[in-house]
Amino acid sequence: MLFGWTKIEKKKMGISPSKRVERTLETSPEFSAACAAVFDRCLDLSNHSSAGVRPYQIVDAADLLHASLTSAADGRAARLVRRWVPAPPGRDRIDSAFRRVRSGGGGPGDLDAEGFRAFATELFKGEVSAAAWRAVIVGVPAGAAVIAGGGVAARAAPGIVRTAVEVYAVVVASAVYVLSG
Hints:
Blueprint: H1 7-12, H2 17-26, H3 29-45, H4 58-70, H5 76-84, H6 91-103, H7 113-153, H8 158-179
């Protein structure tokens, strides 16, 4: 139990934040358009020598996708990426997402259009979720310390301070949940 926020309370909020992010990306027209444009760009850069994005192109493709989404018109996926992924994903995250997509089927070869979109969804779902959890991890202890300090200074009863910290933790977690999808 973290500040009174149990698993049961967490389940009441619905599907997990990462699933919400995934659903937002999968149903987003601007995300689909960005994936298709970057996929086509990668094919053009390789002079259509293969039917998909080659593994050596994946880092550049992720950078192009990030640039495309951060400059896209105002849609849900673009807002998510602009808010939670201010810089292109790092190589370790890109490799991790690529491995997860490749382990789901297919060999070590190129990513077709569907595989590239699955890679992009996995990559940005992970980036948005990680950034949201970082916000909770940083925000809750700092706010709890301020509330506890205020309670000590005001000589409030410990039960009141504990309740205030618990409410604050739930509010911060809920805000991050709402903003993540």
